[in-house]
Amino acid sequence: MKKERRIPTIIAFLLLILGMTGGVILIETGVKWFVGAKPEISPGQVKITNITESSFTVSWITEEETTGAVQYGEGKEISFTALDDRDQLSSQQDKFWTHHVTIKNLKPETEYFFKINSGGRLFDDDGRLYKVKTAPIIQEAAPASDVAYGTVLKADGTPAGGVIVYLSLANAAPLSALTRTSGTWAIPLNIARAVDLISWASYDKEASVEEIFVQGGKEGTAVAVTLTKNDSPVPEIILGQNFDFRQAPLSPTPTPVGDFSTSRFSAQPLPTPYPTLQIFNPSEGEEINTSTPEIFGVGPPGKQLDITVESPETLRGQITVGEDGSWRWVSPQPLSPGVHKVTVRLSDGQQITRSFTVLAAEGGELPSFTASPSGTLTPLPTSLPTLSPTSTFTPTPTVTPIARAFLPSTEGGIPQPGNLTPSFLLSILGLILVVCGILFK
Length: 441
Description:
The chain is mainly β and 441 residues long. The protein contains three helices and 28 strands. The protein has helices at residues 9-34, 85-90, 421-439, and strands at residues 44-49, 56-66, 68-73, 80-83, 96-103, 111-118, 121-124, 130-133, 147-153, 164-169, 175-178, 184-188, 209-215, 221-227, 234-238, 242-244, 251-254, 263-266, 278-281, 286-288, 294-298, 304-310, 314-320, 326-330, 338-346, 351-358, 376-378, 406-408.
């Protein structure tokens, strides 16, 4: 009689234990291994602008067209959702390369936390919630109306709709706007706040310098420098080029621009690429809530820049200006909280120095008020809720609320996924008992 071969009980038992352990490990790490987000939808160049007592704006870009929204809350339960500004108008979600989300109806001097919803997935700031505090109410009436506006064109001369225009003014908090389909944009300067947000920004309506950075995503970027006397309108900005409108000759040719009817001016831009050294981020005296700020600007193409950051520690780096005249540099290591001074120097002697402050993290929640390379993916357990005309978050009413722009994702906030380990352990233990029963039968 042929002897029947059987696996020894102890070996079978060990194999089951190993299988159980491997299964638990795969279950715990499987999300990271198999459910990673496509880098094309990861938010990059995250910025917070337009902070008022009842609103703020979050903007970013993605490498492919995708939906975008911000999920936020007064505490760390981010139970409300704000859609892209264009989606707020159309009441439906579309896909974009650039994303500009204005969150309204907020409380003054209140801290809000948020994550970015890009392509149906939630992203945070490297494992920490983004955070921003709304401004206090200014009792003093706003100055007389003063609007900077203009038009952005693509390289082929057609209107550049849906691109983001960032405007920096000395001693003012950062501002931004989204261009219309006609390529026109408008940013009211009279309601710009000072950097500390407690008063209206003070500036010279004739001679203050405005730095304009246009982010067009796949269409490219543009940089322009002008004076406040030349910003109504700012001469046409073409993506892929850099302009200096401060000394350009102006010749009036009356024609309406966007929603404004006034004289339109034309100016001759300096040849592209940009001939002089400029820093556009950070601005002088800016408070930055990230330890690895991105420093960028423009300069003569092909020239080498020496960058020095002075603070308790001294960091040095070198970078070459690109063919389009733009350059970017990120600190190779996190900067400590406090005041820092960055100096950018060219070999011909040109140099610019800017001081900025890196804010200390509170409870490990360090947001990014300036450009950051990308957000960090966290699982999104629920899909974006459908629009409802009555589900608006209105702790502080505003004059012109936009219907269906803000909505709770669930009544109790975003549900957190449970831990599957106990369930699988019990299932595997039951399987072991069944197998042992068969082996010892």
